[in-house]
Design goal:
Layout (H helix, E strand, L loop, with lengths): L1 H32 L2 E3 L12 E6 L1 H11 L3 E12 L2 E11 L4 E12 L3 E9 L1 H22 L19
Antiparallel strand pairs: 1-6, 2-3, 2-6, 3-4, 4-5
Length: 166
């Protein structure tokens, strides 16, 4: 009977490990949501040091094709300055017309005003931030609860009452 209990515990630890991996995968998906959202397209130019998504028009796709790709839809980055009818941005992501994204590492690009359809300011999303924090707290509590047995024994692992006496 001792071997059966060891097998049951081994199975339980494997189950905990599988659940932990599942929780980590779910957490990774939640982290991809992020804590930010973009406001609708605006025509007012953003201030320096502001994180924005610059929506590119058809003329901009032609003008910027050699620098950021021919089918670019939006350029996300940090505004550095406005000078000579263009905006200078440190780019961290480019999204094409099909929705595919390419991550950049802060390369500086000058985008002429005539290439810009509008700006999408980035702001902190309270709902997404709350979901992210809640998911992390839930994962930590669930993981600690399983590993430290905070929620009690499962019914199958409780010791028996022993042999019945007559």
């Amino acid at each position: 009977m001792t071997d059966h209990r060891n097998d049951s515990r081994r199975t339980r630890s494997e189950t905990i490990a599988q659940r932990s991996v599942g929780v980590l995968c779910a957490l990774a998906l939640v982290l991809q949501i992020g804590c930010f959202s973009y406001l609708p397209v605006q025509s007012a130019p953003p201030l320096p040091a502001q994180q924005v998504g610059i929506v590119v028009n058809d003329r901009g796709r032609v003008l910027l094709g050699d620098r950021v790709g021919a089918s670019v839809d939006r350029i996300d980055g940090k505004v550095i300055s406005r000078q000579d009818g263009s905006i200078v941005v440190d780019v961290y992501r480019v999204t094409d017309l099909r929705g595919n994204t390419a991550t950049w590492t802060g390369e500086r690009v000058s985008i002429p005003d005539e290439a810009i359809l509008g700006y999408r300011a980035r702001k902190v999303s309270k709902l997404k931030t709350l979901l992210l924090v809640g998911s992390i707290v839930f994962a930590i509590v669930a993981s600690l609860g399983q590993s430290l047995d905070l929620f009690g024994d499962e019914l199958g692992e409780r010791p028996g009452e022993g042999p019945q006496q007559s």
